[in-house]
Structure formats: structure tokens, C-alpha cells
Amino acid sequence: MSVLQLKNVHYRVSSADDELAILKGCELNVEACESLAIVGRSGSGKSTLLALMAGLDTATEGEVHLLGENLTPMSEDQRARLRAKQVGFVFQNFQLMPGMNALENVMMPLELFGLPDARDRAEKALAQVGLSHRLHHTPQALSGGEQQRVAIARAIVTEPKILFADEPTGNLDETTAAQVQQLLFDLQQHTTLILVTHDRQFAKLCQRQVTLQHGVLEDGLV
Amino acid sequence: MSAVLSSLFASSRWFWRGFKRGDWLWLWLAVVIASASVTLVEQLAQTVHKSMLTKAAESLSADLVLRSTRPIDPQWRQQAVEQGLETSYQISFTTMAMHSTEQDDEFQMVLLKGIEANYPLRGALSSERGLDFNQLNADQVLADPQLRGLLNVQPGQRLLLGRGEFEIADWLAGQDVFQATFSQFAPQVIMPLSVVQDLGLIGPGSRVNYELGLAGDLRALDAFAKILEQQNHAHWQIQSARAPTDDLERAMDTAWLFLDLSALATVLIAGLAILIASRFYLQRWTASMALMRAAGASNRQLTGLFALQLTYLALLGSVIGVLIGQGLFYLARPILSEYFVPLVIPGYGSAILIGLISGTLALWTFAWPAFRQATQVSPLRVLRQAENKTNVLVLIGVSLMLLIALMGLLLSNQLLVWAVPALFISAGLLYLLAKLLLIGLQRLQPYTQGWLRLAIAALARSPGLVTLQLISLGLVIFILVLMTFVRQDLLQSWQASLPQDAPNTFVMNIQPDQQPEFAALIAQFDIEADLVPMVRGRLIEVNQTPIHPQDQTENRARRLLEREANIAVLNQPPAYNKLTAQLDNALRQADMPFVSVEAEIAELFGLQLGDILTFDLIGQPFNYQITSFREVEWQSFRLNFFFVLEPQADRLLPVTYITNFRSDLSPEATSQLRRQLNQQLAGVLWVDAREMIAQIQLIMNQASMAVSILYLFTLVSSLIVIFTATRASQLGRIRSWLLLRTLGAQQSDIVKIGLTEFVLIGVLAGLFAANLGQITSLLIGHFWLGVSPQLNPTLWLVSIGASALLLLAIGWLTQRKPLTQTPKQLLQQLQADS
Ligand SMILES: Nc1ncnc2c1ncn2[C@@H]1O[C@H](COP(=O)(O)OP(=O)(O)O)[C@@H](O)[C@H]1O
Ligand SMILES: [Mg+2]
User: Fold this and answer.
1) Would you say the CB of residue A43 lies under 6 angstroms from ligand 1?
2) C-beta separation of A21 from A11 below 8 A
3) Contact status, residue B31 vs residue B354, Cβ threshold 8 Å
4) 3-state secondary structure of B461
5) Domains of chain B: which residue ranges?
6) Can you give the pLDDT at residue A136?
7) Which ranges in B650-689 belong to alpha helices (H)?
8) pLDDT at B785
9) Are B728 and B465 in contact, with CB atoms under 8 Å apart?
10) Distance (Å) from the C-alpha of residue A116 to the closest C-alpha of chain B?
11) Of A91, A114, A140, Cβ closest to residue B10
12) Smallest Cα distance from B364 to chain A, Å
């Protein structure tokens, strides 16, 4: 079953005098529980593409189907509703809520939508990423790897169908990065994982790889 | 529904967690300060107001008094009763009382007052031993204890008044010293109205005051007062407890103004703290909002969530603020009740409500821009630094509207009309001024070196933030400087108006032929005094055009025309009056004597130099030409007159003499002097103002204390603002220090650069404040005082010096840690905060 489909996706940004085409007709089809790596050089448009796929932004042209729904005609609020139920995110710079401790950070999406048993579920998710002993530490007191693990726990706590990760190990040293990578794949078993990275070794851990180059997607590592 | 509920739960949980962590501390403090100060000032003002009104009504013995020189037609009383008002009728006149002892007959002028059983409608008639007036026998009276010294009488002894002989049952108690105005200088003797009318003292020529006292519902009173005023009877005078004497009204107006302004100043200062603090939180708020939007929260939901949190903050802040405000008021109560008897507290509800509303409004007014920007954030921000597309009009417009609402809540309409445009215009100017200062600083940079150069560069990097800091710090320092000067000025002028050697005794109604004897008498008691000749009279024409009380719109003007005033007859105006304008000699009319007019009265009636005024001086009209205007300090307790007339040999005016002086005689000596005066100089009146002056001095001391307390309050809130302002740029500073350290700067260099940045901001803010202060003082000088513009170097020195020092101190106190941290520590802190 296809969970994500891109059809001739274009993305252009217009500045004061000229128009810049970043994506020029991307095609993609992702199956459920698949893990896919999108690689490409810095500035090639990976984050832009990820934003379109996750419904954070809309394409200038073409269609994005996420879990069977066409995102293009949707309003921002409709897309938000879809994100809330089905999508999880992990970012390069962790994006933890400042001031909140690990547990509160993981509880945040559950509390936001008034979901039951927020505390239990958050503790469970933190246990899954191996942070049961640091529930009450704030981001300041955590190392980079620990912060990213909190972010991963937060992404999976709502049990999303699809998980987007934008350079999740980009800010980590090699050893820590390897640990986080392993963790992502351990947790991914029942979820679709779409990973954006410029690290080819990391990409190879995924079932499938595509390369973003000159605004289009090409199969494999180019 | 469940979405709403979950928002409520989530927001309250998040708010409480954040609150405990101290996330909201600065905003919360600012709200507390705003609502505490408003509550305190509001409660104080209402209490003082109400107490004074009650006091005024008690002094009047009614809410409204119709006073007439002729008997009042009973139909008016009838009408008042029909309107549901309480009424009480009384008459009073001065007459001679005689007390016979074995050796001698003693005489004393007294104010005989005939009253009805329900007198007074407001307050109470009390005697020293607590006798009930209505239980007295027909031949018993209550009398002013002053008589004790003047006639050597005791309760139980007898007084002869007209045809009747009366026993003094007891002395009146709780007599109001402020009531001892010049119209009521003689000691009172009180008896039933029916008895007075049988004494045979009221004849065709006698000057009797007839009074109808009214009390009851405010609206009924106002309606009835209007009917009375429409009658336009020249011999009527309507006095309301709500508009007591002019002097009092003016003094109170200034006090209200100071209260209003200080409340506004504190709220604005707190508002600036909120503005800066919210900018400081903005980074954090947008980051959280973007994240939550990425996690799938809708814009509406987030706005609601955030608004709820701010609402909790507003509530928590203003409730605590109101408690603190009321607590302070509670502490002030014992002091207040010493000065205001009776102390009437008009309930706490409205002050509490206003405190709550203004705390909440202040938060929304000043946090709105940050709130709006944060809630408009795009979810894309989690991936890249996307700029916000916020409508500046909405951003500023909403804040401005809220600000107007806030000012409307705190200021009287009259003041609002001025304050709102003034605020907007000055806000615009302030912005320009801040921009100019910043540009100036950047221009200066190429000519500087080393750490100064780096410090300037650091400031120039975030012009928006520096502008905001400059404006708010500058404003705060400006308000502080202004309040310092105003406070000093106020206290000084109060002190000056009542010097230690102010005259405390007035003697009037001295006939021309009694002059030498009077001088000789007081000389025996080592008192010297100048006698001033005066007549009683009324202004009736200006340039041959009759001027009528009923045509006047101003109460003051009407009252002045209705009553006979004391008019001095002197060769030149008193030296202690400052002449503000003088007629050119060429314009003097030959053989027309001059009149010198008090400046405010001249303005009130639109009088010009050279105008011809006609006075009715005991039944006869006389013309005088205006040759000068004078400024008069009414609170000075000197002999002051609206009009000073030139004496003319051919105008035989019924002149009497008045004088005042300072007397430090003992009570016994005073009694002795007054008794001798009574026996030797019939008809001379002695007014002892010592107690009144002592009370006024007391009130002034208390008022200066209140002013100082409010000043302190403003000072404390200002310090909080300045602290917040420095917190706001913390991150940027740490970032640049880190960079400098990694580039190889020594720690001592960092300290120099860091502190220089603070001093620079301080100097700029001080410069800014000095500009404002100079402009304000020039404007006030020009429009208010009519003096020519003057530069005030002290103002510049004080505000620049003080503000630089203040910021240096704050910089050292708050930045000691980051300034001395290692690069690694700085990096950690930076990562933790961003
Ligand atoms: N809204 C925008 N306005 C202007 N340029 C943009 C915008 N969004 C993306 N870009 C540009 O598109 C290019 C791709 O950006 P991004 O998707 O972040 O690349 P990657 O994630 O592969 O490094 C960059 O050059 C970026 O500056
Ligand atoms: Mg990227």
C-alpha cells in the first residue's frame, strides 16, 4: 500500500526580481513500513521536499498524496490535522521545547490534543529510547545525543504512520550518531521512515535510496 | 468541545509548570506592579475623595445649602420635601452678647444661630459633656468654647441676648476649625429657631443669613439645585458639599492630577517592562509555537492555548497585585484616619476591579505584539529560518487601542484628551530620536578604537533591540528625572506657602478712630502689625457695561459677583504680590484712580489693562481704571485681595482696617488680650487661625509623604524595567563575547567591552532622557509659566551621569557571571537558551 506519492512536484520561490526553481518535477512512491533515504548536497532542496511531503508547505505545482489524501487543495488547518494524527518529526537541531524537561517534552503532543494517559505513554516512549533515568532533566542538562533521543521519543509517542527525519544526526559526533541511527531503525519496524541526509553511509542503512539532484529525484545513490 | 477542554487543561498545566520554573517571572512581576499601583492609588483617591465630601457635607451640615439674605419662601422647602429631600431651616446673625459679673458687664460679638430639631442633616451636633440639644430647656443654649476666654463665662452661667437671658448648658464640641472662615469668625451660640425669632433682634436693617439645608438622594439634589439656580436670585447663594471652596478645589485638583499621573507613570513603566520582557520571550515563544504547529496544532488552537496562558498570567499577576495594593492601603489606613476625620472608605470593589482590569490590560497592551508575532509563526520554521509575515498595522493598532482603553480607565476625560495625542506624538518623536542617536553612534565608530569600537559594533548589530532599549530606558529615566523634579518642586512650594513664621492671627473690623488704641494695645504684648484699610464691595460694571452673576458660566465668577468682597484701599499694591502686567502711563485716564486686579480674576472676566471697573461700595458706584495685574499666593496666609483701589480724598469710603500677624502668645495671654480688646474696642473681630494652620501643616506633611511613597514605588518599578531590558539582549551579548573569545580576546578585554556596551546604552538613554526633559521643561516654561526658554545643564549632567552609572552597576551585577566565564561555559549557556 502506498503511503506517500509525489506527482510532478515543483517548488519555486520568487524573490524581488527573479524566480528560483528548487524542485522541478519530483516523482516518488513510498510503500508502508518502508525506509527511504533522500540524499543530496547541501542546498539541493531536501528540506524543502521534506516540508512538502509532510504537509508543512504546499507545492507550487504537482500533487502530494499522503496516506491517501491529496495535500495540495487542503488548507493549512486540514493539513495540521493530518500531521497531528499520522506524522512524526525529528529535526537536525532537535527542536526541544525550551524550559520543558524530557518528560514534558514528550508529553507535549499528547497533551496538546488531550490524549489519555499522556504521562504513561511518554514514560514508555522515553524508556524505548533508553532515557528512563533522565525524565526530569531539561534540555540544558542533556547531551546532544540525549536531546535527539528525547526528540525521537516525542516523534513516536503519538504512534504515527510515517516518520520524517531531517538530518537527524547532522549535529552529532560519529559514535553518538551511530547510536541514534540504530535507534531510529529499531523503532521504525512498524512505521514508514523518510530520512533526509547527506551522509551516504547512513543512507545505506535504509531499504531504499533516492538522490535529489538539479531539482529532480533519481533512484539510487548517484 | 473536547478540543476546548483539552486546550484548557493543556494550557493550565503548561502555564503552571512554566510559572514554577520561573519562565514568566518578569512578565508576572510587571503585571503585579501595574495592578498593585493602580489599586493603591485608586483606593487612596476614592477614600480621600469620599472622606473629604463627607467632611464638606458635615461642615455644611447638609449636602446642599440655599443661603439667602432674605427669608426663604416656604414654597421652596415644600418643593424640596416633595422631591423626597430632607430639609432643615436655620437663621444666623451676629449680635452682641452680654455677661454680667459682680464687677462689670462684659460684651462680646457672637454668631447667634437658630436651628430646628433635625439640625444638622449631616454630621452631628455634640457638646463637651454629650448633652442632647433637643433635650435642653427653652432658656438653655450651647456655645462655642472660645467664649470661655472671651467673656470669662462657665457652663451654668448666664448670657444676655436681646430680650432674653440664657444659660450656657455646655460648650460645643468637635467644632470644625476649617469652618472658621471669615464670614463666621464670631463664636457661635446655638438655640432653637423658635426662640431666636422671639428675641426681637431681627429688624429691617439687620444682616441675617437664612439657610435652607437639604440632604438626600444625589440625583434629586442635583435636580433641585438646578431649579434653584434657574431662579437667578441675586440674594441667593447655593453651596454644595461637592463643590466646597475654590481654594480647596484647586488644591485637590493638583493632588488628583499627581495621583492620576503617578498611577499612569507606574503602569506605563510596568508596560515597558512587559514590552521588553515579551520581546525577550519572543524567540522562545515562536520556537515553541512552530514546533507545536508542526506537530499538528491548528493556528486557532495555538492562539487559544497561548491566550489562555497569558490570561492565567494576567489573573495571577493582577490578583496578587490587587492584594499587595490593598495591603499597602491597609497599612496606610491608620495614618489616613489621623488626617481624615471621618475616614470614609467607599468600599473596596471598584478599586479592586480597576486594579484587576488595568493589570490585565497592561499585559495585553504591551505583550500583544510579541503574542501576535508568535501565534502567526509558520510551521516551516522548524526546518529553516522563515521570516514572519505579520501585519504591522494589526500589531501596532491593537496595542494602541488597548493603550487608549487603559488610559481611559486611569485618567479623567479632561486629562485623556491631552494625554492620548501627546503620547502618540511623543512616541513617534521618541522613535526618531532613538534612531538618530543610533545613527550618530555608528557614524562615530570609525573614529574609535579597540574595545570601544567593538562595543559600538555590538550595539549596531541589533538596531531594533537597541532602539527598543533606548526608548524604554530613556523613557524610564525621563519619568524618574521628571518625578524627582516635580516632587522637589511640589514639596518646596508647599513649604514655601506655609513658612514657619506665617501669620496666624487676623484682626478685622477696626474702625479708623480705633487705630491708635489698637496699635497701643498689641504693642503691650510685643506684637507689631500693619493695618490695611479696606472696604466691602462688589464689582458691578466693566467699561460701563453691567456685569451680572447669572450671566457667568464659571461658578467662581458667579460667586465673586454675588458676594461682597474685601477690597483693599492702598496707594500701591502690597509688595508681596508680584505684578504681572502694568498699564503704560500714556494710557492712564486723568483723574481716574487706579485699581490693581488679581491676575486669575482678570482672566476669568476677560479684563484688560486700561478697562474701567465700577464697584458698588456700600450702595454707591465708583469708577477705577485697571493699571496692573497681580499674582497672588492664596495659600500664603498673608492679607490678599482680588482688588486694590487707590485712595481718593474726595471719595469717602466706609473704610475699616484689617491686619494679620504672627502671635506666639500663651493661651492665657491671648485670652487676656482678647478680653481687653473686647472692652476697649467695640466691634473689633479677632480670628485665631493657629489651629487651622497646624492642621494644614499636618496635612501637607502627610501629602508630601504620600508623594514620596509613590515616587519610591515608581523608582522600584523602573529598576525592574531596566533589569528586564538588560536581560532581553543577553543572548546576543553572550554570542558576541563567545566569538571574541574564540578569536583570541582576553577575558579582561571582554569585561571592558561588555561593560562599555552597558555604559554606552546608559549614556545614550541618558542623552535621550535629557532631550525629553529639556523639551518638556521648555514647553512647560513657555506655555504654562510664561517664562523664556532656558537650557538646564544640570538636567543633562544628572540624567546622563545617573543613567550611565546605573547601567554600569546593573551591567556588573547581572553580567558578572557570563563576563568571567570560559568559552566552553558560554557555549553551553548559548545552546541551552536557543
Ligand atoms: N522560501 C524560500 N525563499 C528563498 N529561498 C529558499 C526558500 N526555501 C528554500 N530556499 C532555497 O532553496 C535551496 C534549498 O534549500 P533546502 O531545501 O533547505 O536545502 P537542503 O535542505 O537540501 O540543504 C536553498 O538554496 C535555499 O536557500
Ligand atoms: Mg536541509
Assistant:
1) yes
2) yes
3) no
4) helix
5) 1-60+244-411, 63-240, 528-662
6) 93
7) 667-680
8) 52
9) yes
10) 10
11) A114
12) 23
How many Cα atoms are found within 13 Å in the side-chain-facing hemisphere of B433? 22
- The reported pLDDT for the residue numbered B255 is 63
Ligand 2 centre and the CA of A49: distance in Å? 9
Inter-residue contact B325 to B39 (CB < 8 Å): yes
* Closest residue to A47, CB basis, from B9, B295, B383: B383
- Give the E-state strand segments of B423-564 in sequence order: 505-510, 532-542, 545-546
Which of B62-66, B681-685, B781-785 is the least confident region?
B781-785
Strand extents, DSSP E, B517-570:
532-542, 545-546, 565-569
B366: its cell numbers: 504591551
Query: b vs e for B409-436, b when ≥16 Cβ sit within 10 Å of the residue's Cβ?
Result: bbbeeebbeebbeebeebeeebeebbee
CA B356 from chain centre, in angstroms, equals 23
Residue having the nearest C-alpha atom to atom 14 of ligand 1: A45
Q: Is the beta carbon of B389 within 6 A of some atom in ligand 1?
A: no
Q: What pLDDT score does B247 carry?
A: 55
Task: Tell me how far apart the alpha carbons of residues B176 and B58 are, in angstroms, rounded to a whole number.
Answer: 9
Average pLDDT score over residue span A93-115: 89
Q: Which residues contact A91 (CB under 8 A, 6 or more apart)?
A: A151, A165, A166, A167, A168, B382, B383
pLDDT greater at residue B216 or residue B162 = B216
B393-397 contact pairs (CB < 8 A, 24+): B395/B368, B395/B369, B396/B369
Query: By the 8 A CB rule, do B441 and B433 touch?
Result: no
Q: Is A130 left (phi over 0), alpha (psi -120 to 50) or beta?
A: left
Banded model confidence at residue B780, pLDDT cuts 50, 70, 90: low
Contact A89 B295 (CB under 8 A): yes
Q: What is the mean pLDDT of residues B578-589?
A: 88
The Cα A194–Cα A33 span in angstroms is 10
SS3 B212: strand
For B628-640, the pLDDT digits (tens) are 999 887 666 678 8
B463-478: b (≥16 Cβ within 10 Å) or e: eebbbbbbbbbbbbbb
Distance CA A109, CA A151 (A): 11
Distance (angstroms) between ligand 2 centre and the Cα of A157 equals 24
Cis before B120? omega within 30: yes
DSSP3 helix / strand / coil % (chain A, rounded to 5): 35, 30, 35
* Chain A residues lying within 8 Å of B832, measured CB to CB: 138-140
Mean pLDDT taken over chain A:
92
By CA distance, what is B16's nearest residue in A?
A100
Q: Bigger pLDDT: B708 or B677?
A: B677
B700 pLDDT band, cuts 50/70/90, is low
CB A18 within 8 A of CB A182: no
The Å distance, Cα A144 to ligand 2 centre, comes to: 18
The cell numbers describing B507, all together, are 484682626
Of B269 and B611, the structure prediction assigns the larger pLDDT to B611
Distance (Å, whole) CA A66 – CA B777:
68
Report the separation in Å between the CA atom of A45 and the middle of ligand 1, taken as the mean of its atom positions.
6
Assess whether the C-beta atom of A98 lies below 6 angstroms from ligand 1: no
- Closest Cα to residue B701, out of B335, B330, B329, B256? B335
Tens-place pLDDT, residues B437-466: 888 888 888 887 777 787 787 777 777 777
Confidence bin at B383 (pLDDT 50/70/90): confident
Q: Output B306 or B107, whichever has higher pLDDT.
A: B306
Question: Domains along chain A?
Answer: 34-59+73-219 (3.40.50.300)
Report field, pTM of the whole predicted structure over 0.80 = no
Q: Which residue has the higher pLDDT, B461 or B660?
A: B660
Please report the pLDDT score of residue B254 as a whole number: 60
How many A-B residue pairs are in contact by the CB < 8 A criterion?
90
